[in-house]
């Protein structure tokens, strides 16, 4: 009977995740080692499980989730309530918000607000996150000065596409910055997702031409006291193609740096490091967005160059724990391994989407 219940719970979790459209072939990789699992458990025993800056946020890491808890943590339950403030001393008046998912899906959505109230968005999440993102943006006046896209996967541009398709969204977008390839490239390299790219492209084209900007390496876009630096042109790989075509953006704000890596994989990460071999300091940042939701993204070598002190994880709880329904490290994702890298690199503050909407000020 217990085996049957475990199997039923695991199947329920799998169905929820599948329904969100997020467990794809490009994220199914080997899990972390037993040694990594032991290290995470030891970390929990030593400090009460703190991963996010507990003194500022008051949340702790769960590393022993049972299947029922993992299932219950999906959907809106874990990511509702008041926004958590991680720190109030970083940006001197500017704000960076990690917007958490409203479904079981992994996704990426960040909203930056400048001192004078201008709004900048990076990606935006899935179509299931549309209503919540609109709520966030409306609370800030409903006007987006600049919207940056790393790459056109549905967990990054689904909400943006829906907003653009809705003439009554209540959201005004002054400018969108992106670098898409000709549609044929997507048709050839990831045909099963090419239609999604076409839909996003068509939605963007509803904006005036003056609002649509193709970015290239070396571009610098200034919005008030914030500067967004475009770090690369898309890397066109036949492996993990759309993820590896992610554009990285470095946000310079109040003497701090934030590096967004999108869903770059190992190939793109290596090319990025190689491009800056003569100027590695350009990639250094105080805060880094963990590539591809913290697993099967860039290699450790990239984070060694970046040298972050804070990590942003656009990562739901099942992925954070590598939990396919059987508990900690029961899945085939590499999140625990990457968490181990960051622990070894001395990073102590982790802002994780599993804990809901969070802001850094």
Description:
With 361 residues, this protein is α/β, with parallel strands linked by helices. Helix content is 33%, strand content 18%. It contains 13 helices and 17 strands. The strands form 3 sheets. Strands 1-17-2-3-4-6-8-9 form an 8-stranded mixed sheet. It has a 7-stranded mixed sheet with strand order 10-11-12-13-14-15-16, with no helix packed on it. Strands 5-7 form a two-stranded parallel sheet. The protein is globular.
Give keywords:
361 residues, alpha/beta, Metallo-beta-lactamase, Chain A, 8-stranded mixed beta sheet, 7-stranded mixed beta sheet, 13 helices, 17 strands
For the record, the count of structural domains works out to: 1
Terminal residue distance: 50 Å
Overall pLDDT: 85
Which fold name fills CATH's third level, the topology?
Metallo-beta-lactamase, Chain A
Tell me the β content: 15-25%
State the major sheet. 8 strands, mixed
Order of helices and strands: HHHHEEEEHEEHEEHHEEEHEEHEHEHHEE
Instruction: Quickly count the helices.
Output: 13
What portion of residues is helical? 25-40%
Alpha-beta classification: alpha/beta
CATH top-level class: Alpha Beta
CATH-derived architecture: 4-Layer Sandwich
CATH superfamily: Ribonuclease Z/Hydroxyacylglutathione hydrolase-like
| Unreliable segments of 5+ consecutive residues | 7-32, 44-77
Rg over alpha carbons:
19 Å
Order of strands, main sheet, comes to 1-17-2-3-4-6-8-9
Described by the principal axes of the CA atoms, the overall outline is globular
Q: Count the beta strands.
A: 17
